[in-house]
Amino acid sequence: MGVQKCAKDHSPYVRKCAANALAKLCPRCDPAQRESLMSEVITTMLDSDSSTMVLTSAIIAFSELCPDRLEMLHASYRKLCHLLTDMDEWGQVVAMDVLSRYCRRFFREPQGAKMGSAVMIDRERRIRRTSAGVVAKSVVTDTTGDALDVLIPMNEDKKKKKKSKNDAAVPLGMGIGSVAPSKIKRRVVKKAFYSDEEDESEEEEVYASHPLGAKVPVAGAMRQRSVLGFGVSGNNVMGGGLAGQSAMDNQGDDEDEDLHEDHKLLLRSSLSLLMSRNAAVVLAVCSLHYYCGVASIKIRSAIGKALVRIHRDRREIQYVVLTSIRSLVSECPSAFTPFLDDFFIKAMDPSFTRMIKLNILVDLSLEPASIRAVLKELRSYVRHDDKEFVCASIRTVGKLAELARIVFDRHGAKATANGGGDRCLEDARREANEIALNCLYGLMVLTECRQDEKIVGECVTVMQRIISQLLSGSGEDAVTASKNVVVEDPNSVQSMALRRLVLLLVQA
Asked: Which run of H or E residues covers position 128?
């Protein structure tokens, strides 16, 4: 009786205390009294009360007492969505968890969840690992800029000649196999600053995707100006071109047309909470949009930026966020591709964080520039004092050597399909072989510098895999011209590596 009386008090603080007391008193009541108390007090608070502090305590009590009776939220659903941003931080986490379960029960799955623009991009670029090695899904549609150094640079004169040849063949601002985008006109409305002024509108020319289906670079699309107003970071390895960004800004605006209006209300009301200072709130919003929202480029880009922002917090929070990112990277790598350098390992990172970052770096190595950037970082990781981390870094070198062949074959196949000829495919395979030889030479030097048996044994295992890869000459199933490319080894790296392996075997 006291809780029921306090629930109708004029002071919101008293009503809040009544909601908090309800969660403690109901388990001690008999079943009949508990049912009437919950249905009367919780329904009254959720339906009639407009104070955010009372709603926060009421939704927390609801999640503790009757989390499965989501039909009780029908009358208060829209009010909860509108007042979501005004609740306190921990109340927002509970409210979004309850509303996400409500959404998954009473709304149908959006078509954009499996066929969104971001999903289609990731499906083209994803690489799956099998017992026989790594297998590529299909040919990618984007490329990036200049190459970076790998583990041990070799044949610098040859690299300069090849770079000058490619610079002369490829127009400025376009990658291999890209198609010049067309221009379209659109009307832009500029809102007046004061209410008594009229809005201004003007036409502007923007780049659009090619009518035959050519896409703009993925990194450029994911680094667009998002709906939340996040700025584009500066120098980044995976920075894409500017062509097509305006068109990508509008891409995905109509991907949620099939959603119910109340479903849209929840997604749009929670989107602004990605800028919250509380990491738990940001993770709750990302979970809500990942499981209940559409997989558009705008939403995935906003999710990636928000998670990268909060992962720089304390090491406990950093571990939780990086674990979530590692799970998301395997499904939607394009959301995190522009932020590759944010996952580079720092000197003060703990051991558990370093291992997670290594896995993320491997999953993000889907372009030639990213592979070379990660290999450049691994040059310093293999000199670390932590033996477990050094062994993990050595295994990462072997994975990247395998990925390099598939990634370069993809780009070569795309360039060949766009009229570049079989020479593009052969050049791409030669670059992949060159990376594998550089990795092989770096590991061979590491066996001479490090005396630890565990590290040397890991190097031997990875060297055997790289040599087998170079001798096999097989690549993707769709690639035929590159299988007959002879591995150019002017410095006899393979012979030196084989002699080193035999010497280590004899010494063992």
From this structure: strand 127-130
First-to-last CA distance in the chain?
Answer: 81
Q: Where are the domains of the chain?
A: 2-106
3-state secondary structure of 108: coil
The tokens for 15 are 């009503």
* Residues 59-97 pLDDT 10s: 988 888 888 888 888 888 999 999 999 999 989 999 999
| Residue from 337, 345, 284 nearest 310 by CA | 284
- Number of Cβ within 10 Å of residue 399's Cβ equals 21
The matching CATH number, chosen from 1.25.10, 1.10.1740, 1.20.120, 3.10.170, for 2-106 is 1.25.10
pTM: 0.71
Residue 236 φ/ψ, nearest 5 degrees:
-145, 150
Distance CA 247, CA 426 (A): 34
Using one digit for the tens of pLDDT, what is the confidence trace for 449-505? 888 889 999 999 999 999 988 888 644 443 444 555 677 777 888 888 888 888 888
Q: What is the separation of C-alpha 319 from the centre of its chain, rounded to a whole number of angstroms?
A: 16
Residue 125, CA distances (Å) to 122, 140, 179, 213, 219 in order: 5, 5, 18, 16, 12
